[in-house]
Amino acid sequence: DGALGTMDQRMAGHGFYAGLYSQLDRRELDLFGAAQLPDGRIPHFLGNVHETIGSPDVSYGITDWPDLACSWIGQVVRAWRWTGDEDFARRQWPRVKAALAWLESADRDHDGIPEGGSTFDYEALPAGSFVYTATTYLGTLRLAADFADAMGDGARAKSLRDRVGSYFAKDLPNGKTAALVRNIADVRTIVVNSEF
Predict the structure, then answer these.
(1) How many CA atoms lie within 13 A of 27 on its CB side?
(2) What is the CA 60 to chain-centroid distance, rounded?
(3) Which residues pair with 53 in a beta bridge?
(4) Could you give the angle at the alpha carbon of 90 between the alpha carbons of 97 and 106, nearest 5°?
(5) 47: which strand partners?
(6) How far, in Å, CA of 67 to CA of 73, rounded?
(7) Are 62 and 132 in contact, with CB atoms under 8 Å apart?
């Protein structure tokens, strides 16, 4: 136990060692999940050598970045898929639900995408959805829907899939873009990045 790397950077940087050291990977995800804030947010990181080890209560440890919860949920689902560790999955399921609830609450303009900063250290974005957050979030909803099915929560899985579908059914500014996005939505899995 101790200081871990940042959750957002972990999404891109942990794939290799997760394949080699799956127990370590699941333990780190457990630690981030255990540090989840009461409102469902996942911390940016757990401590540093300058302030404290093992706690998100450090500078830049707690943020309102939606991509942190998305990253954590995606990594939890990936770890479960790769290892088949049902105990791990069951332990994370209440935390995943809390993270999803927080993400939904962060959608302040009611466009279907949570607002907030991101791994790119953007704290004050212009009005509207940031494309990185939007694609990461929509991919996360699809992953969470599959996870909900596996956890025996078919109603939640359907609700999550419906949210993805309703976002893609919206009228976008460019009719051609909307048609393309609707076609992509028909693909079984939305690939956000190589992590998923």
Answers:
(1) 10
(2) 18
(3) 47
(4) 15
(5) 53
(6) 10
(7) no
The dihedral built from the CA positions of residue 46, 14, 134 and 69, taken in this order, carries a sign that is negative
Buried residues in 149-183 as b, exposed as e (16+ CB within 10 A): ebbebeebbeebbebbeebbeeeeeeeeeeeebee
**pLDDT (tens digit per residue) in 133-165:** 888 999 999 999 999 999 999 999 999 999 887
Q: CA-CA-CA-CA torsion for 47, 7, 75, 131, nearest 10 degrees?
A: 160
- Whole-model pTM: value is 0.83
With helix as H, strand as E and coil as C, how does the chain read? Answer: CCCCCCHHHHHHHCHHHHHHCHHHHHHHHHHHHHCCCCCCCCCCCCECCCCCECCCCCCCCCCCCHHHHHHHHHHHHHHHHHHCCHHHHHHHHHHHHHHHHHHHHCCCCCCCCCCCCCCCCCCCCCCCCCHHHHHHHHHHHHHHHHHHHHCCCHHHHHHHHHHHHHHHHCCCCCHHHHHHHHHHHCCCCCCCCCCC
AA letter at 1: D
